Each structure stands twice: as C-alpha cells, then as structure tokens.
Amino acid sequence: MPIVVFHRNGEVHRGEVKENTNLVVRAGIKQFPYPHLRYECGMGKCSKCACLVLGGAEHLPPPNWKEKKQLGERLAQGYRLACQLWIEHDIELVQGDLEAA
Predict the structure, then answer these.
(1) How far apart are CA 79 and CA 67, in angstroms?
(2) What is the per-residue pLDDT for 41?
(3) Reported pTM
(4) What region holds the 2Fe-2S ferredoxin-type domain (predicted)?
(5) Tell me: the pLDDT tens digits for 39-86?
(6) Helix, strand, coil content of the chain in percent (nearest 5)
(7) Which terminal Cβ of the chain has fewer Cβ within 10 Å, N or C?
(8) CATH fold for domain 3-95
C-alpha cells in the first residue's frame, strides 16, 4: 500500500493509503490526511488543494486539463492538484511551507 508523506505548517504527517486513493476524498470523509490537507471544491475548480510534489512525481499521470487551467506555470515547478490525483505509489507532498519559496 502506498505511503503518503504530507508536509504542512512545519509538521510532517505520514500515512498508508489503499492503492487508487484520492486524498481529497479521504479528507472529506475525515480519513488521513484530514485535517491537515487544505481543500475546498474537490473538482479541480478552485486550486485550494494545490501541493508541491517532493517525491513520487515520476509515478503520476500527466496533468489533466483542469490542472493545466488552474496551475498554469506552477506545473513546471512541480505543483499538482490533490483532488485530481489517484495515489498508486508512495508520494511526498507539501502545502504551505515551501510554496512561497
């Protein structure tokens, strides 16, 4: 099962998830990474769930049209929308800490 390492506000949260898991769906039903993940619509319209991928990006599918529209140039910096990702492999994400850097 994939391991998710999630950084936010100087804290590191680690959890195991089933394959083909969406982190925003899990947070919505109060499972890991709830309450640490910032999200809102869950449909790729608001970009509140944008995360910088620190590790595991090579296992992700290419960005879809929603990510391209919402993230634009930030895609090249390694950002993805958590609501559009279905986790199949270990991944490390950050919200907040490194986003301004």
Answers:
(1) 9
(2) 93
(3) 0.92
(4) 35-85
(5) 999 999 999 999 999 999 999 999 999 999 999 999 999 999 999 999
(6) 25, 30, 50
(7) C
(8) Ubiquitin-like (UB roll) (3.10.20)
Could you tell me which residues come within 8 angstroms of residue 8 by beta carbon, excluding any fewer than 6 positions away? 36, 37, 38, 94, 95, 96, 97
13-22 confidence digits (pLDDT tens): 999 999 999 9
Residue length of the chain: 101
- CA dist 18 to 9, 44, 72, 81, 88, Å? 25, 22, 30, 19, 8
Name 5's bridge partners: 14, 92
Alpha carbons 47 and 44: distance in angstroms, whole number: 6
CA angle 47, 18, 51 (to 5 degrees): 20
CA dihedral for 38, 42, 46, 49, sign (positive or negative): positive
Distance CA 22, CA 98 (A): 22
> What are the domain boundaries of the chain?
3-95
